Amino acid sequence: MVGELLKEWEKTVYVFSNFYKPHEVLFLGKEREYSLTFNRILYSEMPESKRKNLLLRLLQDIKSHQKSTYQLFYYSNQNPWNLKTLKLENEKSKSYFLQVLKVWKLDPNVSNSQLSQLNELQICLENIPSDQTKIRIFGFFGFFHDYGRFGYENQIASLGSNQSRLQYIHQSLFQSHHFQKRLENVMISCKNSVRSQKEL
User: Fold this and answer.
1) H or E segment and range at residue 167
2) Are 181 and 14 in contact (CB under 8 A)?
3) How confident is the model at residue 54 (pLDDT cuts 50, 70, 90)?
4) Among 112, 100, 111, 98, which Cα is nearest to 150's?
5) Following DSSP, what letter does each residue of 90-143 receive, concatenated?
6) Which residues contact 182 (CB under 8 A, 6 or more apart)?
7) Nearest to 182 by CA among 26, 23, 4, 6
8) DSSP-derived secondary structure for 31-94
9) Which residue has the higher pLDDT, 159 or 169?
10) Distances from the Cα of 127 to the Cα of 33, 148, 174, angstroms
C-alpha cells in the first residue's frame, strides 16, 4: 500500500501540478498537504490497523483529487486569457509558453542537457495545432507559470548588488529534481498531444 501511495503521490506532485489548477500554488496546496499527512501517518506511534486505515483513506483521497484535476484539465470551460474561442486561447497559450522557453534558454543556470530538452519541448509545442478543438494547450500552464516568473534578464538588471542571491535562486530552481521531473512530464504530455491529433 505504501508503494502504491508513493506512486500516486509522485503523480500528484510531478504530473498533475503541470495542469492548470485555479487557486492552488505549487506545493502549497494539496501536494504539500498530502506530503505532510503521508509522513505523519508513517512516522507517528499508532496501532497498525489504524495506520492501514489512514493510509487507505489518503490513497482514496489522492485518487479522487487526481480525477477531478484531470476532468478540469480536459473539460473546464474556464478561459484564463478571457478570449472568445478555444482556438484563440490555444494561440495565446502557445505564444506565452514559447516566450517563457525563450527566457529560460538565456539563463546561464540551465544546463546543456536541459537546454536540449527545452529546444525539444519548443519544437513539440510548435507542432500542437491551435485549432484542434479537443486539445487545450493551456493545460501546461501550471509548469510554465510556476517557473516562468523567474526571468533572468529582467531580474538581473534590477537587482544590482543582489545578483549573487539571484544566481543561487536560479541555480537551485533549475537544478532541482522537481523542475526536472515536471519538465519531463510536460514533454511526455506534449508528445502525446501531438500524437493524439492524428487520432482525433
Assistant:
1) helix 163-174
2) yes
3) very high
4) 100
5) HHHHHHHHHHHHHHHHH-TTS-HHHHHHHHHHHHHHHHS-TT-TT--GGGGHHH
6) 14, 17, 18, 143, 146
7) 26
8) HHHHHHHHHHHHHS---HHHHHHHHHHHHHHHHHHHHHHHHHHHH----TT--SSHHHHHHHHH
9) 169
10) 36, 21, 25
Which one of 136-145, 155-164, 181-190 scores highest in mean pLDDT?
A: 181-190
pLDDT score of 29: 66
Mean pLDDT of 75-79: 72
Residue 46 has pLDDT above 70, yes or no: yes
Amino acid at 180: Q
Do residues 119 and 105 lie in contact, with contact meaning Cβ atoms separated by under 8 Å?
Answer: yes
Q: For residues 76-95, give the mean pLDDT.
A: 87
- The rounded percent of the chain whose pLDDT value lies above 70 is 86
Question: What pLDDT is stored for residue 156 in this prediction?
Answer: 54
Task: Enter the C-alpha cell of residue 185.
Answer: 512530464
How far apart CA 5 and CA 195 sit, in angstroms, is 30
CB 122 within 8 A of CB 116: no
Question: Can you tell me the distance from the alpha carbon of 86 to that of 133, in angstroms, rounded to the nearest whole number?
Answer: 7
CB contact at 8 A, 88 and 137? no
